[in-house]
Amino acid sequence: MKEIITQTWSWWFSGAMIASIMFFLLYFGQSFGFSSNLRTICAAAGLGKKTKFFDFNWKAQLWNIVFLLGSIIGGYIASNYLSTGGPVEISASTIEDLGKMGIAAPTSLQPNELFSWEAVFSLKGFLILAFGGLMVGFGSRYAGGCTSGHAISGLSNLQLPSLIAVIGFFIGGLLMTHLIMPFIL
Amino acid sequence: MKFLKFLLLGIVFGIVMAKSEAISWFRIQEMFRFQAFHMYGIIGTAVTLGVIGVALIKKFKIRDFHGNPILFFPKDKSVTRYLIGGTIFGLGWALSGACPGPMVVNIGYGFLSMIVVFFFAIVGTYLYGVFMKKLPH
Question: In sequence order, what are the residues at sequence separation of 6 or more whose Cβ sits closer than 8 angstroms to the Cβ of residue B46?
Fold first, then answer.
């Protein structure tokens, strides 16, 4: 029984759980969209005084901020009580491809080359994390949603804009992975 | 108390994202290299069940727990903003290996360097708010 919990959860169970979370949020009168929190945080920080986009009743979005806080707790629980701390078992071909870019085989969930403090405090490592975050934040608001809002909620509702956005996610992801990353890593 | 249910849902979300390894940079790389089914299985299952469930909600006009109808508001019709915005998002997703949800789950998991990524995601959202009028939508 313990192994079932500590091993990697199956794609079908995980996918079903994500759909369930979306339906619970709908049942509670809300919708599943995580990146809205970034806009809410800007509004709560008072940036609405100068920028109209952040001048809205952000307190109506507090439920989503609570959801965000819960997900941090969830990550903590998963790490401390539900995991053995083993490496991600990605495919051999991915390990080989990443090796060519100087990323060693996994020893945990994340590569040390990008997320260790040593990396964060190097100029290149810092810029990678900063630009990565910047593009996710800018792009998700420009596109009107992220993976949860477009790929899960939007596609579930068969919305064409969400399909276009998801195609965009993949254009960007493939460009970065295959064309840009080999030069910057 | 009205927030407790959202806290619990968030906790479940965080656990699922971590235990499915969807928060792992390695998994995102594997996905964008088409070298495993795992991430496609997660998203595919969620969307398949989502399509069925949303269709049922509409067909049977299911109401939420307040008694209000569950409504779906279509996004504005456009191609430009979704394609360009989506592409910029994808560039960042592949580079940092995390979309907004997984960023904060990673922080809880103990990868505190994700705070840098998350902070700059907020900055990115701010920059969009400042320059949105000048961008093609």
Answer: A15, A16, A18, A19, A22, A152, A156
Token code pair at residue B58: 């509409």
- Taking the CA of residue A161 and the nearest CA in chain B, the distance in Å comes to 6
pLDDT digits (tens, 9 = 90+) for B59-116: 999 999 999 999 998 888 999 999 999 999 999 999 999 999 999 999 999 999 999 9
Amino acid at B19: K
B92 to A15: CB separation less than 8 angstroms, yes or no: no
Residue B123, phi-psi category: left (phi > 0), alpha (psi -120 to 50), beta (remainder): alpha
Question: CA–CA separation, B70 vs B60, rounded Å?
Answer: 11
Question: Nearest-CA residue of chain B relative to A137?
Answer: B121
Look at the alpha carbons of A39, A128, B38, B89 in this order and tell me if their dihedral is positive or negative.
Answer: positive
Helix (H) or strand (E) holding A131: helix A123-143
Calculate how close chain A gets to B35, using CA atoms only, in Å: 7
Six-digit token pair at A92?
A: 């051999």
Q: What is the DSSP letter of A57?
A: -
Two structure tokens written together for A185: 């890593």
Convert the pLDDT of each residue in A105-163 to its tens digit.
Answer: 999 999 999 999 999 999 999 999 999 999 999 999 999 999 999 999 999 999 999 99
Using an 8 Å CB-CB cutoff, list chain B residues near A32. Answer: none
Task: For residue A85, count other CB atoms closer than 10 A to its CB.
Answer: 11
Kindly state whether A105 is in contact with chain B, defined as any CB-CB distance less than 8 angstroms.
Answer: no
Dist. CA B57–CA B47, nearest whole Å: 15
- Contact B84/A168, CB-based, under 8 Å? yes
Say what the ipTM of the complex is: 0.96
How far off is chain A from B114, nearest CA to CA, in Å? 7
